[in-house]
Design brief:
D-amino Acid Aminotransferase, Chain A, domain 1; 2 domains; about 350 residues; alpha+beta; 6-stranded mixed beta sheet; 5-stranded mixed beta sheet; OB fold (Dihydrolipoamide Acetyltransferase, E2P); elongated
Length: about 350
């Protein structure tokens, strides 16, 4: 492979904001695997956000890229899987499997696609220093004839339309809007874009904690919600505390600490089969590797209000944020019923090729 921009390349990142800023280019925030694609003739390499190769896990995407991309180019985008008119992140996670036979079976049953939103090189020309408006125009031209499952992400400079996308697209599994300055060069690994994500709150039961890597202070709180059968399901974690607050939380929660998991709703957490019917911390995962998944059980008596962006099935998609303790809430009242469901929106109305509708630059 001999390209003007060579792997590995760290993707350009975004910092969070509460509101959509004016005067920028706007795109939906895709909920998939961020991917930098390198093509040189018959060679394709797909790099992840952590610079690890994704190529072997998505053979159908490699085939589609060979059919739809220019002969020599470098693209930034997102690998996504759509099922039932919305993005399915769980299906993506299943693809990271060591068995090639399993990967190829899933490539046929739950095929992935690629949504491109930036162009880093074309032919012999590196485009990292070109402003976004030029890269975006070149991207739309380079993929003008692309067909499913390769798309150019819709973009607009209309703030009002971006706000409408923010409200409507969540029902298709997208999780916000990304704003990019039009004169911005591509800056690998830097948080120079802006992301605006949905935020909601939920009252959850604190049923355990994990220690911080630095020692016996709180690293994260393990959160639970009761389902219709009255079973406490593990829905995610709350983390990102200042170090002083981690020590304070450890002291606050010490009276709830259990000597063992006996009698705890998640007592069977170490039994792999128990995770089939219930959600508990420590579920086996190819992503966790050799990470220590042990945790400290707490009597499920305290309720915390947390902020979250959206759900992935029956759990929080990302780490939740601590808002306040809720001593006024009965833990048993913390159920899934309180969670807000976004209005459904068909993904096929978003991913439309330029020749067939409103996809691409707008």
């Amino acid at each position: 492979m001999d390209l003007p921009v060579m792997p590995p390349v760290k993707p350009m990142l975004a910092k969070s904001a509460a509101r959509i800023p004016p005067g920028m280019s706007y795109e939906a925030k895709w909920d998939g695997f961020r991917a930098i694609v390198f093509r040189d003739g018959d060679e394709i390499e797909i790099g992840s956000r952590s610079e690890k190769p994704l190529t072997r896990y998505f053979p159908e995407v490699v085939e589609a890229l060979l059919e739809n991309l220019p002969e020599r180019c470098v693209l930034d985008g997102e690998i996504v899987i759509a099922r039932g008119g919305r993005l399915d992140f769980d299906a993506l996670l299943e693809r990271i499997h060591p068995a090639d036979s399993r990967v190829r079976m899933l490539a046929g049953t739950t095929p992935a696609g690629f949504v491109a939103f930036d162009l880093l090189a074309l032919g012999d020309a590196p485009l990292l220093d070109a402003p976004l408006r030029e890269r975006r125009s070149a991207l739309a031209d380079a993929l003008a004839d692309a067909a499913d499952p390769v798309f150019v992400a819709p973009a607009t400079e209309d703030t009002g339309l971006a706000q409408e996308w923010f409200r409507r697209y969540e029902g298709a599994g997208l999780d916000g809007v990304v704003a990019k300055p039009l004169d911005l060069p591509y800056r690998p690994g830097e948080r120079v874009m802006v992301k605006v994500k949905h935020e909601r709150t939920a009252d959850c039961v604190v049923a355990g904690l994990r220690h911080h890597k630095s020692g016996p202070v709180v690293g994260s709180l393990l959160l639970g919600l009761y389902d219709d059968s009255g079973t406490l399901q593990h829905v995610g974690v709350c983390a990102s505390f200042p170090m002083r607050r981690r020590a304070e939380l450890m002291e606050e929660l010490e009276p709830l600490t259990m000597a063992s998991v006996d009698g705890h709703p998640w007592a069977a957490w170490a039994d792999e089969e128990a995770h089939v019917s219930s959600r508990m911390p420590g579920a086996p995962s190819r992503w966790s590797g050799k990470k220590d998944l042990s945790w400290v059980p707490l009597r499920p008596e305290r309720v915390v209000e947390v902020a979250y962006d959206h759900m992935q099935g029956d759990r929080f998609r990302h780490t939740a944020q601590f808002r306040r303790w809720r001593p006024d809430r009965d833990p048993r009242s913390c159920t899934y019923a309180q969670l807000e469901e976004p209005v459904n929106y068909d993904l096929s109305e978003i991913l439309v090729h330029p020749s067939k509708g409103p996809g691409g630059s707008r």
